[in-house]
Amino acid sequence: MAANGKPDFGILLVLAEQQFVRELRATTAAQGFDDQGRSDGFVLRTLGAAPATVGALAERLDITKQGAAQIVDDMERRGYVERRPDPTDGRARLIQLSERGQAALAAARRFHQAYERRLRKTYGDAAVDAVRAVLASMAGEDSTTDPHFRALMF
């Protein structure tokens, strides 16, 4: 508890995010995507915007190239991404979403939209708009305009 006798704000944010992720995972698992890893959603959204090399993916996700390669290898094994030759650089390979990856991304996006609709029905547009504004402000303008994060936003 915070000094004012209310639950700590930071803990509430963490708990809300954890509940959101549990519901997202349960919903997508019911649609056949029960094998997703912790990083898959970020990779799906990033590659949903445009195919990328492992190096570019690592940069966009702010992880090492080796870390990105391990995630891509695992996602490829599970059928979410495919490697294709880069048409502009014969030495490079582009990572792109497979049909399964596109379907998983679409399922996650549907969940996100339905979740917000449910919040709006329960709490009203003004409350949800206020939460959105607070969260955007907390994230900071740099986060919402940074090209690395733009693909995750839409």
Jot down its keywords.
154 residues, mainly alpha, two-stranded antiparallel ribbon, 8 helices
Into which percent range does the helicity of residues fall? 55-70%
- Which structural class fits the helix and strand makeup? mainly alpha
Strand proportion: 5-15%
Mean pLDDT: 90
Structure summarized in a few sentences:
With 154 residues, this protein is mainly alpha-helical. It is 68% helix and 10% strand.
Helix-strand blueprint:
Layout: H1 9-30, H2 40-49, H3 54-61, H4 65-77, E1 81-86, E2 89-97, H5 99-123, H6 125-139, H7 141-145, H8 147-153
Antiparallel strand pairs: 1-2
Task: Kindly describe this structure.
The chain has 154 residues and is mainly alpha-helical. It is built from 8 helices and 2 strands; from the N terminus they run ααααββαααα. The chain is 68% helix and 10% strand. It has a two-stranded antiparallel sheet with strand order 1-2.
